[in-house]
Design goal:
The protein has 502 residues and is of the alpha/beta class. It is 45% helix and 14% strand. The protein starts with a strand and ends with a strand. About 3% of the residues have low confidence. The structure holds one RNA strand of 75 nucleotides.
RNA sequence: GGUCCUUUGGCCGAGUGGCUUAGGCAAAGCUCUGCAAAAGCUUCUACAGCGGUUCGAAUCCGCUAGGGACCUCCA
């Protein structure tokens, strides 16, 4: 089965065929590093990390570009244009670039916690001012942008006359063009008066004197509009036409719509073959976002230091939580849901550890052909489900179908010759590939270390001895106190004991 | 106001026109156990409401109700 991807642009699932066979160019809108990342930000980066990993698994050579937006944009309309980055910097008494660096570092730290693969290229907006200016000049020369008072605006009306502006986001162009005249649009965009039409968007903004972040341009000192950076950097590193552009659904309009317009004018063709958008993470049914005042920062997530959290959550728990739902569905956050994911992940990973240690026999044919083929089928579906627009929840469901079988094999409830050696080997391989390589999950309980292991073995030996002497006081003491320390003792049928961090 | 999406069992969440209609968490019972835990087995089992299309719909269409997103910085 071939990989199918839901294309936001056509609103259909399409067979994925890369523009250049064997190669994939993927651009994902990265963070604005003027503040700390929150749980909502985790979704696209984890979702597209899995996309990247899966494409790699499918033998594509992927160039994965994810930008860092470190040039400030507007904060509030109806007031004087303010650079978000420089404003915050004054509050915190930091240099703008110092602030940007701080949050970039924090973002990178969080990505590492989530075990996200680093992008191939991570370009910054401030590092590509020249490219953006060149692109704006090109748009002006082609007649689709105009200069007013040192700012440059994209002429949406002119573009819409010959192009389908609004197709991606499902906007009706007449309404956009009409927006400035409508009563319900009471909030005035900055610079609205100097635009030819309300729907026009800024390519370059003249910087007021108090603006710290500013660059020289043919139109005076200023800073780039929000949308142009992605167009410029994507074009530079992936070309005029590339395969996948990803981001949150909230970026559909105006960001991605505008990107299409800009790039189409400059490159004479639509820039992106497959647009992918992840849905939002909500809290109590409401999107997590600054304006709603309901964000949980990632540092709070990992520390449990937030009123909505009953405990700290491991980054892998968050990652698993996100993978348990489809990337295009909204995902409602709650502490309970996270706790459920935590337990589920632990159960799954424990089974995986057991699986890794199961001995592979030379059993050529299964004694229980029905079970053997059921397992084979579940394993084969891993790839089938992922091929169907990255159906990670269904893959996980299949893994949970197999988990009890793994445990039963270990406990002898299912004899080893029930399944063939090749099937067992396939189980090991498939779990390893999908759990670790594709889903990017890692062991949560990797506190095991060289010193602790022999000490634990010593304690378990003493306990075993005590048990065989019916000295249950001693054996229970060891067990109970270890439990208090957060170490779980598991006895199996053969009298063997394993342990793990609870 | 416009555009679009969504509504699944106690909770979270997959999913397909029909074949017993995932999975996880929680709960209950059982097996195992010195007692537990872990593990295994079993049970509980839904598709907002109303109408329509169909031999047959939770799955397609319409209406109603609830929820949400975007239209503004936003993942």
């Amino acid at each position: 089965m071939a990989l199918h991807i839901y294309n936001s642009y056509t609103r259909k699932k399409e067979i994925f065929e890369s523009i250049t066979p064997g190669y994939v160019g993927m651009y994902v809108c990265g963070p604005t590093v003027s503040g700390e990342s929150h749980l909502g930000h985790a979704r696209p980066y984890i979702s597209f990390d899995v996309v990247y990993r899966y494409l790699t698994y499918k033998k594509y050579k992927v160039r994965y570009v994810r930008n860092i937006t470190d040039a400030g944009h507007f904060e509030e309309e109806g007031r004087e244009a303010e650079d978000k980055v420089s404003k915050k910097a004054q509050i915190e008494k930091l240099e703008p670039m110092e602030l940007v660096q701080k949050y970039t570092n924090l973002f990178h730290w969080a990505m590492k916690q989530f075990n996200c693969v680093e992008p191939s290229i991570e370009p910054t907006a401030t590092g590509h001012i020249v490219e953006q200016i060149v692109m704006i000049e090109d748009i002006i020369s082609k007649g689709y942008a105009y200069v007013v008072n040192g700012s440059v605006y994209f002429d949406v009306k002119k573009y819409a006359a010959s192009h389908d502006y609004g197709k991606l986001s499902g906007r009706v162009i007449d309404e956009l063009l009409d927006a400035g005249n409508r009563e319900d649009v009471s909030r005035e965009l900055d610079g609205q008066q100097e635009k030819r039409d309300a729907a026009d968007f800024a390519l370059w903004k003249a910087a007021p004197p108090e603006h710290i972040m500013r660059w020289k341009s043919p139109w005076g000192e200023g800073f780039p509009g929000w949308h142009i950076e992605c167009s410029a950097m994507a074009t530079k590193y992936l070309g005029s036409n590339f395969d996948i552009h990803g981001g949150g659904m909230d970026l559909l309009f105006p960001h991605h719509e505008s990107e299409i317009a800009q790039s189409t004018i400059c490159n004479h063709s639509a820039p992106v073959k497959y647009w992918m958008h992840n849905n939002m993470i909500t809290i109590n049914g409401r999107k997590m976002g600054k304006s709603y005042n309901n964000v949980i920062k990632l540092t709070e997530m990992f520390s449990g230091n937030h009123p909505l959290l009953t405990q700290a959550f491991h980054p892998m728990t968050v990652r698993f939580f996100i993978l348990q739902s489809h990337y295009r569905s909204t995902l409602d956050f709650s502490s309970e849901a996270l706790s459920a994911s935590e337990k589920a992940l632990k159960r799954l990973w424990d089974a995986y550890e057991v699986l890794k240690n199961l001995p592979v026999s030379n059993n050529a044919s299964p004694n229980d052909a029905e079970l053997d083929s059921k397992i084979t089928n579940w394993l084969n579906e891993f790839e089938i489900f992922m091929d169907d627009d990255f159906g990670s929840p269904r893959v996980i469901a299949n893994m949970f179908e197999i988990a009890p079988i793994i445990n039963s094999l270990k406990d002898g409830l299912i004899p080893f010759d029930a399944i063939s050696a090749s099937t067992l080997q396939k189980m090991k391989d498939s779990f390893q590939v999908f759990l670790e390589d594709v889903f990017g999950l890692t062991n949560v309980n990797d506190q095991n270390n060289e010193l602790l292991n022999p000490i634990m073995q010593l304690l378990l030996d003493i306990r075993k001895e005590a048990k065989s002497n019916k000295d249950f006081a001693t054996s229970d003491k060891i067990r109970n106190q270890l439990t208090q320390l957060g170490i779980l003792i598991k006895d199996d049928k053969e009298g063997n004991t394993t342990w793990g961090v609870a």
